[in-house]
Amino acid sequence: MIVAIDGPAGAGKSTVARAVADALGIGYLDTGAMYRALTLMALRDGMAVSDGPALADLARRHPVELANGPGGVRVHVRGDDVTMAIREADVTGAVSEVAAHPDVRHEMVARQREIMRHGDWVCDGRDIGSVVFPEAEVKVFLTASVDERARRRHAELVTRGERVDLRDIRDDVERRDLADSSRAASPLVVAEGAEVVDTTGMSIGQVVDRIAGLARGVAR
Ligand code: DC
């Protein structure tokens, strides 16, 4: 079974997707982490994030490794643990441009399908229900108001000890929404057959129960 969870930045996808995977006892694939890890490699190598073919080639030569562990997913590239580094502001600022290249998406989608070829998975991203796995048994479009998403992201960064301004976060969320939904290659859309779940005012537990319930209904 594939549970596809798509939605805009800050809707809580990765937190929810990981918890749903735990509740169902199945694997979790964070596709945003794959785009982020590629972006980090490109920045470290001093590559232009405008060069789609070169970025796709980098992704082919150095596939991102994701390992589910007790503390969450660990992300490795070229033998380095980049789990924390891929969440930093320079990566967040450049990843939308990297993810907009059709060559890059082609490479990433092939790898995502390969990883999920066997077994049951919860997978989150922007194009999982629309492009990667349109045949997914459960499709969810997770969203929340811009203010709520900005507040959540701000709280998360503050918890991590970063000093950030809520207005800057809100601007960044809006900028990424626009970039992700207006790009030509696989824009963020509500996939056909997806259930829209607006999490504004819902607790994580409520959202997880709702999606796990949908999956259990399908598995029955
Ligand atoms: O979910 P996230 O913030 O970690 O995603 C990082 C970026 O990658 C985001 O700007 C959108 C892009 N992305 C994508 O285009 N397709 C996916 N399946 C996952 C993420």
Task: Describe the 3D structure.
By secondary structure, this protein is α/β, with parallel strands linked by helices. Helices cover 51% and strands 17% of the residues. Helix 2 (31-44) packs across helix 4 (89-99), helix 3 packs parallel to helix 5 (102-115) and helix 4 (89-99) packs parallel to helix 8. The strands form two sheets. It has a five-stranded parallel beta sheet. Strands 3-4-5 form a three-stranded antiparallel beta sheet, covered by helices on one side. The model has no long low-confidence stretch (mean pLDDT 93). It has one domain (2-209): P-loop containing nucleotide triphosphate hydrolases (Rossmann fold), CATH 3.40.50. The chain contains nine helices and eight strands. 2'-deoxycytidine-5'-monophosphate is lined by residues 9, 31-32, 35-36, 95-96, 99, 125-127, 176, 180. The site of 2'-deoxycytidine-5'-monophosphate has 13 residues, from helix 2, helix 4 and helix 8.
What's the multimeric state? single chain
Percentage of helical residues? 40-55%
CATH class: Alpha Beta
Low-confidence region ranges? none
Globally, the shape reads globular
Q: Kindly identify the CATH topology.
A: Rossmann fold
- Count structural domains: 1
Radius of gyration, rounded?
A: 16 Å
Strand order of the largest sheet: 2-6-1-7-8
Mean pLDDT: 93
Q: Are any ligands bound, and if so which?
A: 2'-deoxycytidine-5'-monophosphate
Largest sheet: 5 strands, parallel
| Terminal-residue CA separation | 12 Å
**How many β-strand runs?**
8
- CATH homology superfamily name: P-loop containing nucleotide triphosphate hydrolases
Q: Strand fraction band?
A: 15-25%
Order of helices and strands: EHEHHEEEHHEHEHHEH
CATH architecture: 3-Layer(aba) Sandwich
Structural class: alpha/beta
